[in-house]
Each structure stands twice: as structure tokens, then as C-alpha cells.
Amino acid sequence: MARPKIALIGAGQIGGTLAHLAAMKELGDVVLFDIQEGIPEGKSLDIAESGPAEGFDAKLKGTQDYADIAGAQVCIVTAGVPRKPGMSRDDLLGINLKVMKAVGEGIKAHAPDAFVICITNPLDAMVWALQKFSGLPTNKVCGMAGVLDSARFRHFLSLEFDVSMRDVSAFVLGGHGDTMVPLTRYSTVAGIPLPDLIDMGWTTKDKVDAIVQRTRDGGAEIVGLLKTGSAYYAPATSAIEMAEAYLKDQRRLLPCAAYCNGEFGLKGMYVGVPTIIGDNGIERIVDIKLNKDEQAMFDKSVDSVKGLMDACKGIDETLA
Ligand code: A3D
């Protein structure tokens, strides 16, 4: 049986890391697409040359031609520009919306059966625009943010409790921005919910509040340190987790930017919600009950995503 084909649209920091991870995990053959000539070709060759030492079997190809993504089972989109210090994710909207149009048309023409994972910021508005421009079914187009935000939350919690990150599960919902909603009630250490851990005296509410804030600022913390761009190792690993769930029909329950059609009381928009990913793409949105405070945070986050969608409609009338 032929290996699956994974198309990576954008061969920058995240795109290159995605290609490396996909090859090392033998998820399939990789096509790395970018408008910059030489970058995807150079990264593909470099990664392919790591194959003998690492011992993986995967073909890698760099290209500027959308025809090369033909028949891809998965497309991961990072094309666009990242943040620099002082910029918000929303500052990227105008430039990246135009990029989504070109990418959406390329996917529509050459890989209409793919499962598409968007990473380009501002995430929730870009994945919505990408679905519209590509015309692919909504269950086959989603955005990566919740897996990364939850991973950051889990990492910080594991430091606080001094336990393995594997034993910490955590949930971050809402839009991928300053209004994201880390849900402490649904976050646990080996099944013990955070509020119980506070009651037990293992940590304090103030410490958990500080961790929640650090999670919200997690992207900006990295941008501030790197100064030349934004995070890429953890974002790439998070998207690969989603791609693997699809390719292997794992039915993982992962928070993703998914198209809501009634779930969480929302219609016709993308926002971070718990989903099940299997070989039909987004198989299901898990419509969990939020308490009053959580609902208020979620509503605020939804409003900020709607604001970005309106801004997109103002720029491109085909989205209205
Ligand atoms: P970067 O290293 O600049 O790579 C972006 C690549 O896109 C560059 O190589 C560009 O040449 C290429 N590109 C630009 N326009 C096009 C086009 N029309 N077609 C194809 N390729 C094009 O950025 P990066 O990899 O660090 O980040 C990529 C995106 O991911 C940015 O928008 C970031 O803000 C975003 N990001 C999102 C998260 C989330 O959690 C959602 C996390 C980190 C970064």
C-alpha cells in the first residue's frame, strides 16, 4: 500500500519542524510547499539526509507548484507571517487573509479530499476563511490551537506539582488569543481535578491563577524570548498529534478550532472546542456544560473571534 501523502503549505519554522517530525514518525511522504524558492527544497533535502542516521523511510519533496500536493491525505497550513515582539496575533489579519485565499484555492484544485489543519494566525478567523476559500467540508477543515494551549497548561502544571507531564491532563477552550479559556475544573493530575488539589493544600488558588495567566501569555512569552518570530517546536508537535489521529483513525479527544453548527450555542463559526478526530476528520464536537464563570469567559472569547471574522468580511467581500 502506498504511503500517505502529507502536504505542508508553508516551509518556515513550523513547516520545517512539521516535515522533520512527520518523516521521523513515518506518517507518510512529505511535500513541502512555499512561495520562497529554495527554502522548501533545501529543508526537504536536509531532512531526507537525516534519514539514514535516524532510520526512517519517507520521501520528501520541496516545491512551489500546487500540482505537487495532488492527492494529499493531510494538508497542514502555516503559510503567512508570524508575530514579532509587540504584535498581537490579530495584527497579522490583513496579510494572512490574502495568503489563506491563495492556499484555499490551491487545496481546492489539487487536494480536495485532504484533512486540513490550519495553524496560521489569527487562528480561529484564518481557519474559518480557509474553509470558505477552499470549499472543503467543514468536518475536514480545522485549526490547531487548543492542543498547544493545553500542552502549555499541562507543562506549567507538571512543574507546579512536580509530577510527570503524562499524568497531567488539561483543557483550554475558546479562541486562540488572550481570551482563551483554560478550564481548571476539567484539568486533572491523574484524574484528580485541580479544585480538589487546591482543597488538599497541594497548591493554592493564587498559584493556579498565575499558571492560567502564564498559559494565556504562553505564545507572547516565547515571542519575547526569540525576538525574531514565534514558537514552532510545540506548535508543530501539536499539529502532528492531530494529523496522526486522523491518519490512524485514533478517535482522539483533542481541543481544536472546529466548525460549530449549534454546539455551544454557536452557528457558522470556528472556535476552540473539544473534538473527536478520526478518519472522518472532526467526527464530533463534545458539547460540555460550562458553569457561569466559564461561560462568561467563553462568550468573551467568542466575541473576539466574531470581531476578527467581521474584520475579514470587511477586507474580502466574498466572505460576507
Ligand atoms: P515563518 O517561519 O515565517 O513561515 C511562514 C512561511 O510561510 C514562510 O516560509 C513564507 O515564505 C511562507 N508563505 C508566505 N506566504 C505564502 C503563500 N502565499 N503560500 C505559501 N507559503 C507562504 O512562520 P512560522 O512557521 O513561525 O509560523 C507560521 C504561522 O503560524 C504564523 O501565522 C504564526 O503566527 C502561526 N502560529 C500559530 C500558532 C498557533 O498555535 C495557532 C503557534 C505558533 C505560530
UniProtKB/TrEMBL annotation:
The active site is at H176. Its EC number is 1.1.1.37. Pfam families: Ldh_1_C, Ldh_1_N. Residues 148-307 form the Lactate/malate dehydrogenase C-terminal domain. Catalyzes the reversible oxidation of malate to oxaloacetate. Belongs to the LDH/MDH superfamily. MDH type 3 family. This is Malate dehydrogenase. It comes from Psychromarinibacter sediminicola.
